[in-house]
Amino acid sequence: MLGLKLLTDPRWANIAEGNLEEILTDHAWCEQKAASNAISLITNNSEHEDLVHELTAIAIEEMEHFKMVIDIIKERGYTLGRERKDDYVGQLMKFSKKDGSRNMAFIDRLLFAAMIEARSCERFRVLSQNIQDKELAQFYYDLMVSEANHYTTFLNFARKYSVDVDVEKRWKEWLDFEGKLIQSYGNKEAIHG
């Protein structure tokens, strides 16, 4: 359904579970950044009333997820560490087109968001199916469903608002790029790492 070219090796869940404080801290900051990205899209494209409405809901939901992760961190006696640099997201950002029309940049920003949501959804599935901690397995299953909805929302807006971009062709380029990129990841306690 997500179209990802390379699925995460289930053994990555063992790496994540081996340092829950680290994976939870990384996850918390991913949720905060997702909320910020939705707000940025709203700010730069406020003429689209339906987009403003839907992305406001996503931004709120992402901040609710941020709080949920922080609550888990606190309940387990961990500490929320400093924000983590996400090299995976940085590489995706470099792939984004910024030198075309305003519409092209807008569509690519939506596809960028869809790509991150798709990979996050897939990683949450791996965690939900492979970690021993039943509470966290259920938590990640619930978030997997949410991320799938976000992925669909961003992709559908790209299709709806494209003026000068062949969205299906560009989405295939995103999937191909990410399929190569993700080969370098999956070996540390980070949602995209």
Automatic annotation (TrEMBL):
Q: Which domain of life does the protein's organism represent? A: Bacteria
Q: Which Pfam families match?
A: MiaE
The record ties this protein, via InterPro entries, to: Ferritin-like, Ferritin-like_SF, tRNA-Hydrxlase_MiaE
Q: Which GO terms label this protein's molecular function in UniProt? A: tRNA 2-(methylsulfanyl)-N(6)-isopentenyladenosine(37) hydroxylase activity
Offer one example of a GO biological process linked to this entry: tRNA modification
Species per Swiss-Prot/TrEMBL record: Sphingobacterium athyrii
Q: What's the name of the protein?
A: tRNA 2-methylthio-N6-isopentenyl adenosine(37) hydroxylase MiaE
